[in-house]
Amino acid sequence: MYSVHGIDISRYQQKINWTKLKAVDHEGVSVSFIYIKATEGLDALDPMFATNWQESRKAGFLRGAYHYFKPKKPGKEQAEFFLKNVQHLPGDLPPVIDVEERGKMPLKQFHSNLKSMITAIEDEVGVKPVIYTSLRFYQDFIKPKFPDYPCWIANYHHPKLLFTDEKWTLWQHSDKGKIDGIIGRVDFNTFNGSLTDLKKMCVKDL
Question: Is-catalytic flag, 8?
Answer without folding.
Answer: yes
